[in-house]
Amino acid sequence: MILNRFCIYIFALILTALALPILADGATPTKPDPMIDLQAQNIRYDMDDHKFFADGHVKAEYGDEILRADSMQGDLDTGDVVARGNVEYVKKDKRLKAETFNYNFNTEIGSGANAVAKVGPIFLNGTDLTSDSTQFVLHNADFTTCNAQTPHYYLHAKELIVQPGKQLIAKHVTIVLLGRKLFTVPSYSVNLNRPKETGQTFPMIGARKNYGAFVNQQFDLSRGSKTKGLLDVRLSTKQILQLGISYDQIDGKPFFVRTSYRLPYYGGSRTDLLVSRLPEVGMRFVTGDVTRKLTTTQDQLDIFSGYTSVLGKPKHPGGFNAITEVGLGEFAEYPTGISSARADARFLGWLSPIKIIDPFTTISPGIMARHSVYAGGKEYSVLGYRLSVGRHLGHDTAIEMTYAARSPSGSTPFQFDQIDLSHELDANVYFPVGAFNVILGGRYNLQNDSFFDSSLTISRTYHCLTPKIIWRNRFSEFSVGLGIVAF
Fold first, then answer.
1. Which of these, 275, 270, 282, 269, lies nearest to 234 by C-alpha position?
2. Domain span(s) for CATH 2.60.450.10 in the chain
């Protein structure tokens, strides 16, 4: 037993070494030091102290920064300016509006009152604003992707931290839909690099054959960019309360903690399994462009975990991505009643999609390895690989297909822990039907030439909101959700 655990740790260390990025030294670019280019109907300079006063359609340019206002005064030496009336600040994808704005072009630090901003697809406003070169902060702020004069939905936050091109972090957030407050959460975050890969904003309502009707809601527990967490709450007619909490990074350290209470598990050899983690803890090392959040209802680090879409536009095409995890936990499975401790080492690696043949076809290969040791002495290992191919067939029409092979050995006491299929084809077809968007998915068992599972998603976009209906055949599950455009 001791030897088995020792082998796990050695295996994990080897995989971790393979997953660590190679850092190259490079020179730090220096910031240019341009002069303020000032345009206005009336401009007055004080040649003694290099101060200026301007009014009437004032425009100040400093490198790639532009500041407009009805009137402006400032110091050419220090870079300090005070802008008043219809203030607008623009820099790349960062756009701010305010009644007044105090700003320093040299330090890029500023503050304003009654500010309105736009970052990527998100509109924001707040009572006061502070800004520097990396972020700006709004208080008593509203934010939304809806550009209607009266937004169909918005989120109100006591404090809103925006890091352009990176992320948005809101604290003490109230979600408002069609003028009605739904609920309040401690925090909420959006990845501005890939805003469509965020969590579930509105509740998911549905019914599942074995467990009755349910309401499922996810809450973001992240704190800044250093702590990434998710709370998953489900109320159902037969199980009453089910919940899970997962942290994949804690205070910038590569530690994870996952705990759950009787949550349904979308994997394994049975469709009615519930799993409790009591809890599971370990270390998680990430290399490459990995932004997706794990949930406690999915198999961790499987080939089909969906960390990347072969139809997407990766930040680094062909770049290598890898995740290594070493964990230890106590698990309980229902309705089998099986419980056991498990020590686990896992590795998942894949290439970001690259174009082949033509600009409309992409591929992404991936590999995985896993070894688990259980309290009773059982051991279970899986080696696998996949090849995903995506093809855009026209406007809003595409197909992606994955061939996957897994080779298990040993045995596990759990049914949720077993792989579904050793050899399979997984396909998703995206196509429009009138005003509706349809996703038809299926898994085909290559061992016995039969369909293993199928799914159907139907959605329609109404301005900024996208209601959707989902059917999962294998789990006999029907659900209705509400998505947000660009979230």
1. 275
2. 40-182
9: alpha, beta or left, given left = phi > 0 and alpha = psi -120 to 50?
Answer: alpha
The total of other beta-carbon atoms located within 10 Å of residue 481's CB is 19
Q: Which pLDDT belongs to residue 384?
A: 95
Note whether 259 and 243 are within 8 A (CB). Answer: no
Specify the pTM.
0.76
Report the pLDDT value the prediction gives residue 445, as an integer from 0 to 100: 95
Give me the residues paired with residue 116 across strands. Answer: 97, 125
CA distance 345 to 475: 28
What pLDDT is stored for residue 13 in this prediction?
Answer: 43
111 and 130 Cβ atoms separated by less than 8 Å: yes
Contact 82, 63 (CB under 8 A): no
What CATH number matches the domain at 194-484, 1.10.10, 2.40.160, 1.20.1050, 2.30.30? 2.40.160
pLDDT at 198: 44
Give the pLDDT confidence score for residue 34 in this predicted structure: 57
Top CATH class, 40-182:
mainly beta
Stretches where the chain sits below pLDDT 50 are 1-3, 5-32, 195, 197-199
Which tokens hold the place of 336?
């089998």
Distance (Å, whole) CA 378 – CA 380? 7
Asked whether the bond before 279 is cis by omega within 30 degrees of 0, the reply is: yes
Question: 483: closest CA among 181, 147, 152, 118?
Answer: 152
Other CB atoms within 10 Å distance of the CB of residue 303 = 23
What is the distance between the alpha carbons of residues 109 and 102, in angstroms, rounded to a whole number?
8
CB 159 within 8 A of CB 139: yes
